[in-house]
Amino acid sequence: MNADADAGTDTDAVTGPPDGMVDARDELTPMLSQYFDRCAEYEDALLLFQNGDFYQTYCDAAEEVARVCELTLTQREDSTGTYPMAGIPVDNAATYVERLLDAGYRIAVAEQVERPEAASGLVDRAVTQVITPGTVIDDELLGSGTKNYVAAVTREGRTRAVGAVDAATGECLVTSVDDEAGLYAELDRLAPAELLVGPDASVDLTALSVAPMVTDHEAAGMGSAAAAETLAAYVSRPDAVVAGDAERRACGAALAYAEWTQGDDGPLDYVTRIRRYDPREALGLDATAIRSLELFENRGTGASETLFDVLDDTACALGRRKLDGWLRRPLVDRERIEARLDAVDALTDAALARETIRDALHTVYDLERLAGRVSRGRADARDLRSLKATLDAVPDVLAGVDDVDGDAARLDELRERIDPVDDVRDLIERAIRPDPPVELTEGGVIREGFDGELDDLRATEREGRAWVAELEARERERTGIDSLSVGHTQVHGYYIEVTDPNLDRVPDDYTRRQTLKNAERFYTPALKRREDEILGAAERADTLEYERFCEVRESVAAETARLQAVADALAELDALATLAAVAVDRNYTRPAFHDGGIDIEAGRHPVVEATRDRFVPNDAALPPGSVSLVTGPNMSGKSTYMRQVALIVVLAQMGSFVPADAATLPVVDRVFTRVGASDDIAGGQSTFMREMTELTAILHEATPDSLVLLDEVGRGTSTADGRAIARATAEFLHDEVGATTLFATHYHDLTGLAEAYERVRNLHFAAERGGPRAGDGEGSEGPRGGGGRPATTGDGRPSAGGDVTFLHRVAEGPASSSYGVEVARMAGVPDPVVERSRALVEGVDEGTNGHDDGVQVTLDGVNAGGGPEVGDDAPDGGEKPGTVDLAATLRGTDLARTTPIEALNLLAELKDRVEES
Ligand code: ADP
Ligand code: MG
Q: Dihedrals φ, ψ of 538, to 5°?
């Protein structure tokens, strides 16, 4: 996303006044001089300079545009020199603009603001829009499923404020967080495409999982006074909306910047509301949790889908963005959760009504963005028809809602809020033709009967044309020339054509207009009069149509707030109906809430179950504040189990039914996850430092109401250290934090904690010898390897070795201390090796050797027979001495994403390992 990272590109040369023109500055032609000035005005943007059908760029900018957009580089020559030039066709600029945005540029579009015919001399051009990643409004450049925010960050003491604007829909948000960690969590949730960082704030981009463009916009109204002024244009009493100076400045800056990018002619009318929210109103999901739970982004660790993919059966873009927002911010208020669940519940029971609603919503356009375009004066006639088609769907939607039985106050509220906006609908229906052209100034836009004057002009035009159409027959009769014809050319207008042999029969009132090879073209005074009449009427009508269109658009724009309200209600209804449909299709149940622990009966992992033929459900009974140690061989289902508990919590709190036979849950305040370094190699964050930083955050921030998942924590360092850290972490969580914790660990000796600590419990996943039992799907999938080689699952990783089957079933108690050896034995490893391994394990357990995983050497050996596996979920023998392990670590390290300090850590760690072995 960053131009600076692009090899060989000097952004500074590409933006700002063109270096190549500086010397000749005073002699430049008027047009290039204008180009130079506009470039200088928009210094940090790449300027596109309209010249007729092209947006031109010159000098370094031209070279860059040609390179990035793969366009031909040409030259412009004049008396002052020769300048490289590259042009982007105005008609399909969007694709090129997208490439330039991707290359890390802001783009200033300087359009011709007068018609060339109307201009006396040089056509004036002004920047009408600055396109930046965070302020894109063009549908072609926006994904439909997510909001696209520009966010501004300010600071006051420890408090950070964030203001955010979605320029396409006019949504404006403001919030405060207590500290830096809170800031990163909030930014990760908002996922802004662009960031404005106030002079007093700072943002460590490496702490974010999103990669916004950072814009240094002259501290865009970041001063208190400027911000107050900006805000005053939107709300009558800004202080009633924003809390404190930091919020005022953040919100003001985001709005001022959005205004600036939209051509800076005052407040954005479609920002009708500034919404302040408290991050604590939402279940805390930080970047790590969002990532490792694969809510939106697949990490290549298992299933190929994300939770959002599973849920997203929305009928329209409005609903898709709403659902996305819900998943990013599940609720923590029990009443609100229950209100959503009531609505989903009522909709699950109403199959027919639900289908009516969803069918109607399928015909809905992106009303939020349409309303934005209308308000910005950028909607064309087709947009208005789309808007009307959207409103047409509203009565069906309402009929559907009326048919839903059951008691859901939320649905009643939505019913009230969904206003068909009949006046707007009728206006568009009366005014705009059903299938209008894109061009607004060439007629064909306004319907007959809408405007008397326009109808008269069109009638004159029509009569004139009819008169001309009959002219041929009349003139043939009058002159007796059978071959006489009447026609029209763009340049010469109407004519009567007579071939050379007949010229002697041409009447006196014919005047010569044009000579062709074998014929002459004439006009008559009557034809000329008609022609002027037709042209005059057509031209006036075209202009009038455009004026009428603009008036209609303005009338619609005046209703922006109402349109946004309907859009929001439709969005919510789509999200609710989708959750209901998913619940029915996937057999989810309604969760219940109480003040106790997590209690899930036969829970499933929503994503894994969606991508597998068979899934083994598991219970989870986790008392409040309990620490459950989950042990079992690699690939036995530990990670899946822990994530499924968290996903069920997240789903429930967003108001969704959950994949389980029954679920009774507490309201959780935050979900923390930490996936051990070696399990997260795919993320390129395979350093122990990172692991410990995240662990620190968890230990500091988790509360007794939090859910903590620790997956193989402590693996990124030497065994002795790792075990010590894992143990200390478990103890601290138990004694000090009191959060409900699931801790998958390969440090088997941790299971001993259960005896010493009241709320520490052991759970394990076992493998068993022999074929799958009925209902245990795993063994029935994938090819069975012969000769003792492990079979692989569809995703190519070992699942069952020989006759070893993973039951994927959780059970009470710790796994057998030598489960690795057991698996090896079941896989058919020769007895002497098994015996020797067992002896070694026992040695380890007495602490004579740092490698409790020595047994896994054997298992790895078996795996290696089926092809070496190096990946995110590397076999549990990750700590075995030897070069394979080092090589795997090195291979899994993405040097391009490793900082020097991380590299040092890695080196130290590798050295440790070598010394230990
Ligand atoms: P572990 O963390 O113990 O190494 P994982 O949770 O990564 O194991 O699961 C290993 C494989 O088994 C994954 O491919 C996963 O899809 C599959 N799996 C896990 N749990 C189940 C289950 N309950 N039913 C069916 N397949 C499962
Ligand atoms: Mg795992």
A: -65, -45
